[in-house]
Amino acid sequence: MADSAPMIAPEERQDASGIMERKAQTLVNYINKSKHLIVFTGAGISTSTGKSRKTSLTEETGIPDFRGPEGVWTLRKQGRLRTSKTATTLQAVPSPTHMALVELQNRGILKYVVSQNCDGLHRKSGILPVRPPPQPRLASDSVLTCYTRIESRNFMGTATASIVGTVCALCDGVLIDTIINFGEPLPAESLQLARDHAEKADLCIALGSSLTVTPANEIPETVGKRKAAKLVICNLQETPFDKSSILRVFGKTDDLMERVMEKLAIPIPTFMVRRLLIIRIGSETGRPSVKIEGVDVDGTPATFLQTVKLENNRRVVRTEPFIINLRDELETGTQLNLVLEFMGHYGEPNLELSHVYDDAEGALALYLLEYNPLTGQWTATRQDTATLPTVSVNEA
Ligand code: NAD
What pTM value is reported for the model? Predict the structure, then answer.
C-alpha cells in the first residue's frame, strides 16, 4: 500500500526541550487524575528499538514505520532503497516506551493497550495477553484453525512463516498467523473490546502513530470526541486528530515517556527475556523419562528452545516435544543437569539448569528463566506451579 504514502512525507518535528518538559508535566497531571487510562500505539514506538548488545550489528536503526520520512511505504513511493540496516522483529529489544507501558500496567495505572503493531514487542516487553479462550473455528476452506498459539511461537523464537500450517497442540487445528493484511477485517472480538475501552476511557495517549489507518484510528478518535475524556497525542508528524486532542506533543515517544516516568517517580524497568519452562518426570514413552516444554504466561505452549541435552547423556534432543529417556526410575533427590540451547536472537548463551527431582512421579516443576541482554546472564528460579493454573491445559 505504498500508494497510501505521499511522495513527500509530512515533516517530522520536535518540541523544544523546555516545551516538552512542560507538556510531560501536564500529561502527568492527567495521568494522576485518570481512572481509566488507555494507550494507543503505532509503528513509531518501535523505530528506536535496537538489538541486544550481544548480537552486534552496527549502524542499525529500529523497526521502520510506514509513513515517516524513512518509512517502508515512503521509500517505496520515492523509489529509494534503505541504506541502513534495521533490526528484525525477532532480534529487536523493546524500547523505553514499551517498558514504561509495562510498568504502568503492572501498577494498575494503565488499564488497556490497543496496538496496531505486529512486531510482537508489547508481548516481549511483558504486556499481558488478552486472548479469547482456545477457540477452534471453522475457516472458509474447512480446516480447523487456531488463533491461540501462533502469537507465542512467533514472539518466542522462530519466524511466523515456518509455523503457519503446523498443528496446534491445544486443539489440533491448523495454525494461522494473526497479522491483519490489507483488506482483511480485524477480529470482531478484539475490535469490540478496544471500542469498549475507548468508551470507558477518561484518558487516551496515542503514541507513535500517523492515526491514518482505519478502523484502528477510531479508538483515539472516539476518545477525542467524548467531552468527558481527554486525548493526548505524541507523534513526530501531524495527525488528522490533532485538533481534537487536548495535548499535542511533537517529539519522540521515548523522550516523552522517560520524562513522564521520572515525574511519576516510577523507574522504567530493564528489558529481560522471560521464559517459562516446565520439567515433567514421567513415563511419556513407556520408559522413565524427562519431558521439557516451554509455556507462555497463560499456559499456551511456547517454542523458544532449539535443543535440550542431559549432562552425561550423549543424545541431543532437537525436536519438540523434548523428551529424554532415562535408564532407571528416578529416586527422590536425584539431580538432573540439563543443558538448554535457545534460539539465540539475543545472542543468549546455553543455560545449564540443575533440577532436583523431589516430587512424586508425574509431578511437574516450573522454572522462570530470565536473561538480561545487557549483561548476557541467565538466572533460573523455581516457581510454585500453582502460579500457572492453566498449565494443565497441555497435560497429556
Ligand atoms: P505509520 O508509519 O503510518 O506512522 C508512524 C508514525 O510514527 C509517523 O507519523 C512517524 O512520524 C511517527 N514516528 C516515528 N518514530 C517516532 C518516534 N520515535 N516517536 C514518535 N513518533 C514517531 O504507522 P502506524 O500509524 O502505526 O500505522 C500503520 C500500519 O503500520 C499499522 O497497521 C501497523 O500494523 C503497520 N506497521 C507496524 C510496524 C510495527 O509493528 N513495528 C512497523 C511498520 C508498520
Answer: 0.86
